[in-house]
Amino acid sequence: MIRLEKRPQPSRAFSWAAPLLAVLATFFFGGLLFAALGKDPVQSILTIFWQPLFGEFSFFYRPQLLIKGAPLVLIAIGLSLGFRAGIWNIGAEGQYIMGALFGAGFGLAFYPADSALIFPGMVLAGAFGGWIWAMIPAILKVRFGTNEILVSLMLVYVAEQFLASMSLGLMKNPEGFGFPGSRNLQQYPSAHNAELIAGSGMHWGVVAAMIAVIFAYVLLTRHRLGFAVRVTGEAPRAAKFSGVNPGRLVLFCLGTSGMLAGLAGLFEVSGPAGQVTIDFNTGYGFTAIIVAFLGRLHPIGIVLAGLLMALTYIGGDIAQSQLGLPAAAIQVFQGMLLFFLLAFDLFTNYRLRTGRTEAA
Amino acid sequence: MKLTTLLASAAVALGLGAAAYADGHEKTKVGFVYVGPIGDGGWTYEHDKGRLAVEEAHGDKVETVYVENVAEGPDAERVMTQMALDGADLIFTTSFGYMDATINVAQKFPDVKFEHATGYKRADNVSTYSARFYEGRAIQGHIAGKMTKTNTIGYIASFPIPEVIRGINSAYIHASRVNPDVEFKIIWVYTWFDPAKEADAAKALIEQGADVVLQHTDSTAPQAAAQEAGNVITFGQASDMGQYAPFPRVSSIIDDWAPYYIARTAAVMDGTWESTDTWDGIGAGMVGIGEISDAVPADVKEEALALKAALADGSYHAFTGPLNKQDGSPFLAEGETADDGTLAGMNFYVEGITGEIPN
Amino acid sequence: MDLSAINPILLIAALMSAATPILLAATGELIVEKAGVLNLGVEGMMITGAICGFAIAVETGSPTTGFVAAAVGGALLSLLFVLLTQVTLANQVASGLALTLFGLGLSSLLGQGYVGIKPPRMGDVNFGPLADIPVVGPILFSHDPVLYVGVLLVAIVWAVLRYTRVGLVLRAVGENHDAAHALGYKVVRIRTLAIMFGGALAGLGGAYISLIRVPQWTEGMTAGVGWIALALVVFASWKPWRVLLGAYLFGGITQLQLNLQGAGVAIPVEYLAMSPYLITIVVLVILSADKSAAPGSLGRPFHASG
């Protein structure tokens, strides 16, 4: 009879070993899946994990990791604050869209003016857009006790409709022959979030993600507010005694996560994506929820998890094109990776004991 | 400018690869970037049929690769770059939203040829291609106008963009020409793909008296709704949807990219590829008209086939005056035909259609 | 504009059918959440049910067998969620999202040979002369059997939760799993069964889309319905009849939106398409006066020795 026993302290060794074990298990079962589809399993897995990092064209893929990972990390950092405190913002996707719309809207309003102030203005507008969208569930929760999971999720669909309306209407490129989509901000230097060093993948969004990681780390370990966040999540009653104002905490957590999601949207629309289009949002807001948990809601963990997700996306696309694997197989493979990462985390907090048990 | 240098040298290496091919040693590699899954049964499905046709036609002289579900924006740019790095000679990018990404990547790989579907930006190594689906709409409109008994035709539209508006106008012009009492009810569903919503829209139109349902979305949901209603006719969209023939599906517009893809691949092989702007219709085979079923009266079928022949050989243009815009202002004078620029950016209804285009 | 073109009787009949997938999935999720588990993988289980049901219906020629297969498929997929959250005690929110990702991929793999095929049709229940009663007939007696099963399930779930011991135990486990455990209830076993029930119903909901509403198989065809079902459970403050009300309200607003467009009402479409979501939020605010609704242990992991 095997049973689980809670460790007195989370195991340090296992907090490192568990992800590695999970990746190995994914290689094994993923390999089986690829073999079942008639592909060489070793080659498939090397294509996904090795090629982008160390393959012939890694000079191109490594910067892409930053481009793909930065928005995930930026959003996930914000979400992790709330998740730690038991405040569930599921609607980062909507805040991401609103950030992009506010930010791009600010920039497009000044087209074609040339000023060094335009881009900073867009950054502020983008942060505001995400913040205000997250304040709707925050205020409803504080004022009426409305469930924030639901409100933030509903607002994603509302934001998507705004996005469609904007790219077909107000923000439509006047020189675009009637086609949907805004002007390309990449071709408007004052509003372009260009790479800081060409070919490095580093744009302002990557810098913002790094700052957010450091900010979150310091906040959680050194600051009173971070203490309030942790205590509220772990022991809500104790939090009340220690003078935490739950309402203010809701406003802070939802506001911050909304702001960061809005910034991610702004940096994306003004940089890698370039324009507001109907399909501008690609699910970063939802993927970031997974990233936050994979990173165990810890800033450093989130960086690693974000890069790992980015790697599977980039490697997955390479595997599709080079090996003819269907996109669905890549999706299943990603799902497996997440399952194993989540499941093996068990051993960080518990250990297996064999032997007779009293009715457990 | 490290990356640019590296990409340039990679491109040189690829140039060598292409030279090697000239000796007959290497296959021509053709990449396809898809916006949806190949199992969507519509837009991407038909492009992938084109890809398979290329393999079929050129056999082991060609190698095709594809990536599906590629989001517009940086993901598309990355996938195109990756295909070029992997030695693709020709890359088809099959969504309007890939336009700027295609141009960006094409600049970095001057020796790789790009073909962008439905866009308007070209370069020395970027061609554009699109299909004159409105020609097929004309035939649908004709059949619909003749066959409707309630004089109410339902139209499920996706997004208010020129492509869709052009289709509505073309269908309306030809329906009202044979049946001046015809009325169009248009529902905008704001999605290319949401079968459940398409089904709802079709049912709403049928309940409001439409006995013909035209669709500019890709699922068969409206066909099934029509079948259930019993006395409503439909037309296949994107693919033939032959499983609903002979009734309710009486004909269809088929996206047939195969001839174009085969020809362009051949042009790369023999070195005759040039940047062009292709907008082909029924004549060139890019727009296929699915078999008109026996549910259509013989005389109507004959007229429809005559119309198809006239559109195919160019003796008739689907937008031929006299036509007014919805507000009554003149659009085309007697005998005048619309130029491609006007058609490409069409953002108004023709006279007779009620309702407004959203926005 | 011609509002008289809208037939309210047909509108109601249509919204009942449109609401059924959400209704089924939400009823299942309600049981899951009543047991104290939050499974965000509804979308993944629905689409898996959609393809399982479709494939089996096509292979056997029987839509009924298809629906059974859909329920089994959804329940089997939910076992993965059980493994993660009940055995390895992984976080439920993340596990649910991963389940959706996995289910979407799996369904596309399974469905590769089924694009462009027409499934066998399930006929409407024959109520004989009842269907000819004006107004009531078209609304109540002109639907397929699964729609009635959906409504029946709501009634059963309501009765079981309210009047039976099973319901009592389920609620006890959801309210406070430590206390329930102390009373000798098998928390993990009860939750496992609840999750599988939720999976089965989500599967049925998915198959309703692929076999009755649309009917065809295409990748990603559930198009976000699973998320709406999740929202609906909260909207209904975990009460079965409110799930029914909410599903019909939601389906109704969507139907009305499309019908108004067809009738030529000049409305900004995007803003009308937003309306179901905005109205949900408004209703939610009104309903949030009812604070007692959420199960106490919702989303928290349970370990017997912990």
Give the SSE layout:
The complex is a heterotrimer of chains A (360), B (359) and C (306).
Chain A: E1 2-6, H1 12-36, H2 41-49, H3 51-54, H4 58-84, H5 92-109, H6 118-144, H7 148-168, H8 204-222, H9 224-234, H10 236-241, H11 246-270, H12 284-294, H13 299-323, H14 327-344, H15 346-349, E2 350-354
Antiparallel strand pairs in A: 1-2
Chain B: H1 2-22, E1 28-33, H2 43-58, E2 62-67, H3 74-85, E3 90-93, H4 99-108, E4 113-117, E5 126-131, H5 133-147, E6 152-157, H6 162-178, E7 183-188, H7 195-207, E8 212-215, H8 221-229, E9 233-238, E10 249-255, H9 258-269, E11 277-280, E12 287-290, H10 298-313, E13 323-324, E14 330-332, H11 340-344
Parallel strand pairs in B: 1-2, 1-3, 3-4, 4-5, 5-11, 6-7, 6-8, 8-9, 9-10
Antiparallel strand pairs in B: 10-12, 13-14
Chain C: H1 8-34, H2 42-60, H3 63-87, H4 92-110, H5 136-140, H6 145-163, H7 165-175, H8 177-182, H9 187-213, H10 225-235, H11 240-262, H12 269-287
Major sheet description of chain C: none
Which shape of chain A, going by the Cα principal axes?
globular
CATH fold node name of chain A: ABC transporter involved in vitamin B12 uptake, BtuC
Strand content of chain A: under 5%
Word description of this protein:
The complex is a heterotrimer of chains A (360), B (359) and C (306). Chain A is built from 15 helices and 2 strands. By secondary structure, chain A is mostly helical. Chain A has a single domain (70-321), classed as Orthogonal Bundle (ABC transporter involved in vitamin B12 uptake, BtuC). In chain B, the strands form 3 sheets. Chain B has a 6-stranded parallel β-sheet with strand order 2-1-3-4-5-11, sandwiched between helices. In chain B, strands 7-6-8-9-10-12 form a 6-stranded mixed β-sheet, with helices on both faces. Chain B is globular, with a radius of gyration of 22 Å. Chain C is mainly α. Chain C is 69% helix and 0% strand. Chain C has helices at 8-34, 42-60, 63-87, 92-110, 136-140, 145-163, 165-175, 177-182, 187-213, 225-235, 240-262, 269-287. The model of chain C has no long low-confidence stretch (mean pLDDT 88).
